[in-house]
Amino acid sequence: MRRDTEHLEIGKCMGMILPVRDALDVLNGKWKLPILISLTLGKKRFGEMAKEIPKITDRMLSKELRDLEMHGLVKRTVYDTIPVVVEYSLTEYGYSLDKVIEELRNWGIQHRQRIINGVTAK
Q1: For residues 99 and 94, what is the distance between their CA atoms, to the nearest angstrom?
Q2: Which of 2, 69, 102, 117 is 20 to 30 Å from 50 by CA-CA measure?
Q3: How many domains does the chain have?
Q4: What residues does 35 pair with on adjacent strands?
């Protein structure tokens, strides 16, 4: 009987770990969340995002935008103007991360406050 219980626990744990791992694989790295946050405030041109996100290089911004676009979170729109204008925006799927980002923000605020107050693990 104990083996069955252990097997169920392992299955339940894996059922939680795998989807979280999948999400982290898409959002991994230092820059993806800041890019997504920047785009939650509206459409942006490349240069606007580069200015809003401190210390990101143009090369890294370009790479991460391509990756986010590949995952269906960001849309790249090219306007047939002179000069050519390119805008980036969140897709509807990208906006589905709003709650996740808000919860991470809330947790980060609480965590920062704990650190400032010198609270250690209990």
Answers
A1: 11
A2: 102
A3: 2
A4: none
Question: What does the block give as tokens for 29?
Answer: 């790295």
* Residue located via tokens 């982290």: 24
69 and 103 housed in the same domain = yes
Query: What is the pTM for the complete model shown?
Result: 0.84
Task: Quote the CA–CA distance of 61 and 43 in Å, as a whole number.
Answer: 15
Question: Is 60 exceeded by the pLDDT of residue 117?
Answer: yes
Q: Residue 95 belongs to what domain range?
A: 31-116
**In-domain check, residue 62:** yes
Bridge partners for 87 per DSSP: 45, 77
Non-local CB neighbours of 52 within 8 Å, separated by 6+ positions: 38, 44
Query: In this predicted model, what pLDDT tens digit does every residue of 25-81 receive, in sequence order?
Result: 999 999 999 999 999 999 999 999 999 999 999 999 999 999 999 999 999 999 999
